Amino acid sequence: MMKNFLLAILVLVGATQSLASDKLVVGYYPSWNRSVYPHTAVQYQNLTHIAHAFIGPMVDGNLEVPSGFLYPELIQTAHANGVKVVVSLGGWGTYSDRFAPLAADTAARHRFVQNLKNFCVTNGYDGADIDWEYPKNATERTNMRLLISELRQAFNTTTPALLLAMAGPATNWSGQWFDFSAMMNDFNWIGIMTYDFYGAWTSKAGHNSALYGAYPPNDQGWVDYGVQYYNVTRGVPKSKLLIGIPFYGQQFNASALWGTSTGATQVVYYSIAPKLQQGWTRYWDAGSQVPYMISPTGNQLISYDDSQSVAAKCNYVNSTDVAGAIIWAIGQDGVGARQPLLETVGAGLLRPTSVAQHVGGAVPERFVLKQNYPNPFNGATHIRYGIPESGLVSLRVFDLLGREVHTLAEGEHAAGEFDATISSERLSSGVYIYRLTWQGRAISKTLTVLR
């Protein structure tokens, strides 16, 4: 009888299927990082698109392609893994400054449109991402609208049509000069740059990319404010919007959050993470849903994102029906052989399960994995676990043949208790094993799905 039962379970497990996510994850790949982050290091399974940055427009409508920019191996490998690649134009500085005179000249604009279309087709790109930072007046707003309309028309002549996307500001300071009502249908997506809210240009040390915040002008901005600005104020549907997730932070000459800052520098995550073992103290801002850390000397503060805050942003995307996320930039979160932030994004947006959420309360005294509740279940079940110290955590679900079917949590966790939810809609009937690992230790339990 037991043998027949196990055979039945194995048959059920063998039929396990997971539903594909419809979220977009667009990772910017800076061309200048190629030597330290080659195409072989990219975790394609955690992306849907790569934005290859940057080439520049010329005022006469030609393109400036930096030496060494072209990277056919990146495009070929991405395509082999089902990931599309768009070429990104502009960025902060000289390249963006050329958009205004280019867009104002009809002949140059037409030349640029044809050159960009041909560049994409010739080099295997799936489309283009326009990062014009930023139009500055009503005339430039009008000319940008003309440029985007002409690009869309030209891109529609290819089979399949080339993708067209843009990176946009998170507030009305620059957003007022974008004609979103006229352009939004021309874009496949709009990536909101919901980061750099505080930095060297601000007089106080605030969050680089808070999920939530106070009301402007007391606060420079935050992720949800940017989404509401586009969706409610400017009428852009959420199905077009991607939030920005930074894999870097801002290091301030400051002793306290919201305190006076005398300067700041940008620092990438792989330089931030080791500081937890160098005497820096990590704090969690529950209201803003982001961490920060203060140096042992007390005169330096870093605002940044880690796996906990990235998981919160992924849950925000899933719960608000935003289309996905852009990342600046992939390759900035490498910690040893891991890319914990990108892994968290992939688990949160591309795997058909929820990301674990920190539930607060007292820090547990020991490493613990609780039995899921309810169990058996038909609907959703919760898995709670706790870690007494910060560290790399993974919570994965396997079938009885040992095949991984879902990743519920992946990456750096603060000490505390966490809750992950999994839906029975994502699993066939049967018995599964869920396994928690932390600091070389592991605990496993089983859950049962009933239909």
CATH architectural label of the largest domain: Alpha-Beta Barrel
Morphology call = globular
| Average predicted confidence as pLDDT | 91
Q: How would you write the strand order of the largest sheet? A: 1-2-4-5-6-7-8-14
User: How far apart are the first and last residues' alpha carbons, in Å?
Assistant: 22 Å
How is the biggest beta sheet arranged? 8 strands, parallel, barrel
User: Mind telling me the CATH superfamily name of the largest domain?
Assistant: Glycosidases
| E-strand count | 22
Overall structural class, as computed from helix and strand content, comes to alpha/beta
Helix residue percentage: 25-40%
Unreliable spans are 1-20
CATH topology title of the largest domain: TIM Barrel
Strand content: 25-35%
Number of DSSP helices?
12
Radius of gyration in whole Å, from Cα? 23 Å
* CATH class value of the largest domain: Alpha Beta
Number of domains: 2
What's this model, at a glance?
This protein is of the alpha/beta class and 451 residues long.
Structure characteristics:
22 strands; eight-stranded parallel β-barrel; single chain; 451 residues; alpha/beta; 12 helices; Immunoglobulin-like
Describe what you observe in this structure.
The chain is of the alpha/beta class. The chain has two domains: 24-245 and 306-350, Glycosidases (TIM Barrel); 354-449, Macroglobulin (MG2) domain (Immunoglobulin-like, Sandwich). Helices cover 26% and strands 29% of the residues. The protein contains twelve helices and 22 strands. The protein has helices at residues 2-14, 72-80, 94-97, 99-104, 106-123, 138-155, 172-175, 180-183, 223-233, 269-272, 307-320, 340-350; strands at residues 24-30, 49-57, 63-64, 84-90, 127-131, 163-168, 189-192, 241-246, 248-252, 264-268, 281-285, 290-294, 301-303, 324-328, 357-358, 368-369, 380-387, 391-398, 404-413, 416-423, 430-438, 441-449. Strands 1-2-4-5-6-7-8-14 form an eight-stranded parallel β-barrel, surrounded by six helices. A five-stranded antiparallel β-sheet has the order 10-9-13-12-11. Helix 6 links the parallel strand 5 (127-131) and strand 6. Helix 11 packs parallel to helix 12. The radius of gyration is 23 Å and the shape is globular.
